[in-house]
Records
---
Amino acid sequence: MSIEIRNISKSFGDFRALKDVSFKVETGELVALLGPSGSGKTSLLRIIAGIEVPDGNDGAILIHNEDAAEISFRDRRVGFVFQHYALFRHMTIFENVAFGLRVRPRRLRPSEKIIREKVNELLKLVQLDWLGDHLPSQLSGGQRQRIALARALAVEPNVLLLDEPFGSLDARVRKELRQWLRRFHDELKITSVFVTHDQEEALEVADRVVLMNEGRVEQVGTPEEVYHHPANAFVYNFLGNVNLFRGRVKEGKVYLGDMPLGLPAESGVDAKSALVFVRPHLLEVELQPNGKQNFRARVKHINLAGSLVKVELESEWGDPVHVELSHGRYQTLGFRKDDLVFVRPRERKIFVESEQGFCDYAANI
Amino acid sequence: MSEPRWVRAILMTGALLFLGIFLLLPLIVVFSEAFKKGVEVYFESIREPDAVAAIWLTLIAAGIAVPLNLVFGVVAAWAIAKFQFPGKSFLITLIDLPFSVSPVISGLVYVLLFGLQGWLGPWLAEHDIKIIFAVPGIVLATVFVTFPFVARELIPLMQAQGSEEEVAARTLGAGGWQTFWRVTLPNIKWGLLYGVILCNARAMGEFGAVSVVSGHIRGATNTIPLHAEILYNEYNSAAAFAMASLLTILTLVTIALKAAIDWKSQVEAREVGENRERALAEA
């Protein structure tokens, strides 16, 4: 079952949560809606589920090429997993999962025996069949999340929507559960959309990522596409750690301090200033100046814990610079705190000021 | 505890003394006065026809007012806690109105509306409908006075619980009624019961508003509190206190039920807490 989002807008009072959003989720895909808080991703998910209604008549949600507005809530068959689980607190885990089957109209309701089998099967699927007679309050967060998923699956949904599914769990459980969700999706192949503000989670789990900011879609693509070919400054900045430099454009080149950098061919020459993004692992540290493609910086802090050495520097114009290098490289160089070093960007992304401006993006940094 | 022992002793004796004089002593007086002329006189004055009529009328008034305000309270609390709509704060103020208006005024309003000289009086007289100085008036006054109890109890509870569970039920295919019976009602049951008990206690004990609309017709429009007052004014104190003792018993039952509900919901809350700790310890 595919989901098509067509020109959806939504306002809450004066606040415009969604501005003309369109994209398509293909059958069997696992798509992440990624963005900072307030970007409209949860509103969009609730509109797809039918919990909220979009503004105006221009927009539509098409589930399996049918206008969802024409399908009643009951027949929409959307499985929704809430951020705070929303388990029924007074019901046992078994009854929570059985709820969707028990509230069916009498002629569609399965017999008690079939309900029992089905619920037990689902509890096995989420590996919690031994918790059937417990109450939700007796479960840990990760267990509750899995029960919420089993409850949503009980109605055999056409699409599965998850709102920040791992948002309120601690780091270790998050990691475990998101790998589990990926395997789970590969087994069941239900078209799924999940909301997250954690770029690592989106890039690791999803088939495709929809990047949202201030109610708009900034980019749609596979994790590889959005990471390596970001469409704009916002996407580059939001995905992963990044160093941001402000440069000036002179004679077709961007200058960072005295260091000239080539401009991307398509950019206008008349632009005045530019933003230069460099990921920490794409900055090379050297002890001697090597030509003109580098700037001076002073070592402020060295963090040796972890698989990479993280170094904090202060550039010659006073900005903090974050660099990541391997332990081997660090030992070869052998610099210490307060040493003067030379930094050379191996790869960088330049966004030149244009009519629309990049100031929007800079404000988010 | 940092206060010295004598401070604690003074505070505690003060509190107990106050409670004793103003609450416990009247309670004892009511029963001792009621049984002053012996157990037989006591039961005689309760079985007397006018007393039986008063007891019946009280039960009828409460029997109509409590279910009505139960339904209204749940509906109002649901609307206020789960939806945003214009005029919401006005509705909350309206619900509180019977608390802020003197009961006598509430009674007078009904007399002005339905009494012979009232707005609707001539029309009612023409159609031979009696409201004031009759049972309907007493029921109306009781409904008005006990209006806020259930709603007031439920609004904060439902606001705290939010509506996520209801939304979840809807996404799972439950209809409006199914959501209410299976999800909302079980979550508010203790608060609801609490509100009903308070509402009932007030409905049976109400004096002011009912007194204005009743007309004090013996055996016809007297409730227990009104009947007790009449008997007392006739210096028939044993019978008056026998009536009063019935209301006092109601009070004691109410207090006992209230304590039981508090205890029960606390036990549930504690179990939840303990289980959570256990789950955390295991994890």
---
Amino acid sequence: MRVVIAEDNLLLREGLVALLREREIEVVAQAEDGEGLLRIVGGHKPDLAIVDVRLPPTFTDEGIRAAVEARKRHPEMGVLILSQYVEPVYTAELLAGGEGGVGYLLKERVGDIPAFLDAIRRVADGGTALDREVVAELVGERRAEAESPIDALSPREREVLSLMAEGRTNNAIAEQLVVTSGAVEKHVSSIFGKLNLSAAGDDHRRVLAVLAFLRATDGG
Amino acid sequence: MNAISEAGFGERFVGLARRAGLDLAYLSIGGVTAVIAFCVWVTALSVTLSLIVFIIGLPLYLLSVIAFRWTAELDRRNAALLRGRPLRATYKDHKGESFLARLGSTSRDVQTWKDLGWLVVHSVLGFTFAVVAVSLVASVVAFLTMPLWFWSIPGGVDWGLWNIDNLPLALLATVPAFPLAALTYYIDRWMAMGELWLAERLLEGEEAPVDGAPAGSGPNIPLSSDSLRRMIPAGELSLAVHAAISGLIGIFVTVIWLAAGAGYYWPAWVWLALIIPLSLHLGLREAVRNHPDRRGLAILATVSLVITGVTIAVWGLTGFGTFWPIWTILGLIVLFVVVLLVQLAWRQLYGDERERELTERVETLTETRRGALDVQAAELRRIERDLHDGAQARLVALSMQLGRAEEGLADRPEIAALVRQARAEATAANAELRDLARGIAPPVLTDRGLAAAVEALGTRAPIPVTVEAAELSRRPAPVVESAAYFVVAESLTNVAKHAPGAAAAVVLRLDDEVLDVTIADDGPGGADVTAGSGLDGLRRRVAALDGEMRIVSPADGGTRIEVRLPCGW
């Protein structure tokens, strides 16, 4: 797997590179700002870009803007955002352009190396990996809007959908909720039904369900 | 600045009149008790001493002692006029003592001897003071009312220099009444103080309670003559001394005049010479108390009045010839008018300097306050950024390294567990820093502006929130944005806390001058807007930006918080 990294903090960038190289993930290029990201993405055509939200020169949301632009140019590339903040707005913006291959993790998740590597692989394969805190904020405290199909979901189905948004497989979800994987499959197909996602392959439907869920939170 | 100079002229006049009245009453009553005291001690001493050789003298001695005590008691009561409560003294308790024992104990009672001392001194001093006080007041009244009664004296009132036998002269004669009244006031004041001082020394018992009188038990004036500063306010002490010295000199000179066989009342010139500096002293002190803008004119007017009075007095003392002082008076009037016109014209041209200064000051203050707030907002963002790039980044790196260490410790599970725990701590620390940073300067507000940040707040809130923020065409200043953001955040938190079932609507509107923020909910209403609540803190935050905050929360339901923040800067 070929990865590029955009991160202005030297300490973190070096740490990430070392971590990924140990796991035989090839870091083909590094950038320190948004423009640099666009340049190396254009030059190296990586499978995945790992991007910090705050980059020079403005130190605001440069990373998000650059990532959205990069995905517009290279829709097949996955983007994993690393941030210090739980900001669903950014996640929604990122997902609005494409169909998966998107992740948003709090930076400290990097410490849980197996989970982090798992998220990297999933996003590079076109799946999603949303931080559980982001998801919790979206699901647990979401406002009820009558028109949103999400509101038709039962509490259990929402739980399952949150875990799907985090990028878990059915087996992982079953383990987490202490139910059989058959029960999880039932919930999942019920979710697809309620969200009118009957066609397409299962993986793609999972992404679409998460997208529907995120769009419903983005101001309706 | 003392209390006197802050009171209005009317109040001060009433205060002075009241004090003068009390002084006069105290001194007059003192005069009566002085006569009684004189009779008592002269009679008692002469009778007792002459009869002491006989047995009959001994009971008379005891009778005299009782008379002394009773007479002294009159003056103790009188002191209440000035100090609010009477003086107190205790004598030896003679109950149950035999006649002879009583003779002994009485003669050893210090207070009784002090009483006698008082009676002797007071019979002279009190009487003199009373006569002086009453004559001074009578003279003031006489001069003041001269136009009413001068005609009843056949041949006119003969007042030393001249004979007052017509109305204009009688009216003129009322003029000296005013300086004389001032003199009288201060002379009476000093005599009363002196007498009271002596009374306290001689008539008050050693063990008498100190200032124990309940408030409002008597006239509301200072209690003790011990501190003259309290009786005569600091600013008036110099004037009082001045007046008293002048008065004593005048009286002294008049006495010399009387002793020299009266005749031409030449002391009038001395009086004039004494009164000129005194009236200048008094007048200038009043003039200086004026508002700075009018102070110059007031001083000019005072000096003019004194000069006018002096010239008229000189004219009168030199026998009323042609009224030449009219030229002086005319000159002074012209001068006053010219100065007044120049001052008015100056103000017309250059505006009220004080007002301009104040305006400038307000502008400076507004600017600097705004500057301080901007600096503070920038500082908060810098702190947030420092947290992000510093402590938080290091914690992330720490997590990462701990994660790698954990990986390498697969064969030492007990140590790996320790490392995992350490990583969890680092993660928790990072989460705390994240919450802190959000409370200081929410990143989404900095990055995306108010509308996005408020929408994020709405999404995050545990209650349904609709946000209408379409018209935010530009970004207000950071400090305004941040105030508006925290108003919305705090309000939504309040709604969620006090009305969990309610729905809320946030409306943001921005025009050229004002950012309007409205947060309305359909909860039960009756919000607590008293000091100390979170809303009060927001109100102050808004007020610091010259904004307004209105909270409508009727008890029958619904709360509406409206905030207007000026952002024309």
